[in-house]
Amino acid sequence: MHVSIVASRPLPAVVETVWPHEPACAQAAAAWAQALSPALQRGDSVVVNLHGTLGAGKTTFTRHLLRALGVQGRIKSPSYAVVEPHETPVGQAFHFDFYRFNDPAEWEDAGFRDLFAAPGLKLVEWPDKVAGLLPPADLDLYLTPPELQDGEPDAAGEPRQVRAVANAPAGLALIHAWQPQHSASEASHV
User: Fold this and answer.
1) Does residue 6 sit within a domain?
2) 3-state DSSP assignment of residue 86
3) CA 118/CA 43 separation, integer angstroms
4) CA-based nearest residue to 88, from 49, 112, 136, 122
5) Pairwise pLDDT comparison (124 vs 80), residue with the higher score
6) What angle do CA 158, 186, 164 make, to 5 degrees?
7) What total number of domains does the chain contain?
8) What percent of the chain has pLDDT over 70?
9) If DSSP codes are grouped into helix, strand and coil, which group holds residue 36?
10) How many Å apart are CA 148 and CA 118, to the nearest integer?
11) Domain span at residue 110?
12) Residues 160, 137, 61, 149: what is their CA dihedral angle, to the nearest 10 degrees?
């Protein structure tokens, strides 16, 4: 008699959707906060790369996610500081913005290797600026705003195309958090 082997879902897994307005972004962030909480309480490290042009909604999504995780007070963009640490009731969260990052030596000097090795959530805007230095992401989130006639991003509050690619089990848990909101047919494997 042979024992059945139950295979896990293949990775990467992909979900594509549209956030028609900012409340939909906040709702997605709340679902992700609920899915992230057990991993953060265990002391896991979860890396989420946020991709998109200026004005795509990366920082807006991050603020909603940090609020949903229980961060109180002002949540400022780390555009100039590069990283903003946040204490949540379930664990540490770090918001990185590498838009102005120019020198790979900064990576070592700033101690980013240690931060990425530590437990907690790492939300990374502009990960392409530090390609080759970052650990593999558990999930890549791509946000695409509508475009105006001149090719510039449209105003905040407009619909956003959203594509989430899970590269690891922690990322897959985030995609599963969206499943009650989306039909199973939206999830695909590449």
Assistant:
1) no
2) strand
3) 9
4) 122
5) 124
6) 60
7) 1
8) 82
9) helix
10) 41
11) 13-189
12) -30
Cα distance between residue 46 and residue 177, in whole Å:
15
Residues 6+ apart with CB under 8 A from 11: 166, 167, 168, 171, 172, 189
Q: Rounded to an integer, what distance in angstroms lies between the CA atom of residue 121 and that of residue 44?
A: 8
Helix (H) or strand (E) holding 171: helix 169-178
CB 94 within 8 A of CB 84: yes
Q: In one letter, which amino acid is 92?
A: Q
Average pLDDT over residues 24-29: 93
Furthest C-alpha separation in the chain: 66
CATH of the domain at 50: 3.40.50.300
The tokens of 21 are what?
């307005």
Amino acid 6: pLDDT:
46
Amino acid at 28: A
Tokens representing 81?
Answer: 């500081």
Asked, for residue 5, whether it belongs to a domain, the answer is: no
As a whole number of Å, the CA-based R_g of the chain is 17
- What's the token pair of residue 140? 């890549």
Q: Is 72 part of any domain?
A: yes
Kindly state whether residue 99 falls inside one of the protein's structural domains: yes
Judged against a pLDDT cut of 90, whether residue 32 lies above it is answered with: yes
Give this prediction's pTM.
0.83
- For residue 76, how far is the Cα from the chain centroid? 17
